[in-house]
Amino acid sequence: MRSKDILWPTDFSDTASHALSYAVEMANFYKVGLRILHVVDQPIADASYQLLIVTPEELAQSMEKAAAESMHRLLAQLNTDLRVETVIRRGDPVEVIVNEAETADIGMIVLASHGRSGISHFLNTNVSEEIANRATCPVLVVK
């Protein structure tokens, strides 16, 4: 853990941004790099609905372009001497984040919890909880 990078998955929300300060602090403490990951959900379409004017591939490319622009803005605001890598991937967020941690030899994942409770917790997938359960490295969930 002490020699491996910190992974900070982000959806560019204010909640995710709150966890960034923890990720930077951990990376500075261990003198390791920071890997920033954004996952673009693969859009799906049913031809019977005929609602999409663009193909799912075109929509995914547009989402990736918007994510890249958000990543550039984020990096411009990030004031650190850390080695920072950015990655944008497609797929299921839980699968991609867990896979990224394993294949990129990550020492710790630092991510935000959206803090849902009650019925909302049961109706929505709790990404941070599922990552914490499936990851093989330590996971810091920030509220």
TrEMBL record:
<dbReference type="InterPro" id="IPR006015">
    <property type="entry name" value="Universal_stress_UspA"/>
</dbReference>
<dbReference type="Pfam" id="PF00582">
    <property type="entry name" value="Usp"/>
</dbReference>
<comment type="similarity">
    <text>Belongs to the universal stress protein A family.</text>
</comment>
<protein>
    <submittedName>
        <fullName>Universal stress protein UspA</fullName>
    </submittedName>
</protein>
<feature type="domain" description="UspA">
    <location>
        <begin position="4"/>
        <end position="143"/>
    </location>
</feature>
<dbReference type="InterPro" id="IPR014729">
    <property type="entry name" value="Rossmann-like_a/b/a_fold"/>
</dbReference>
<dbReference type="InterPro" id="IPR006016">
    <property type="entry name" value="UspA"/>
</dbReference>
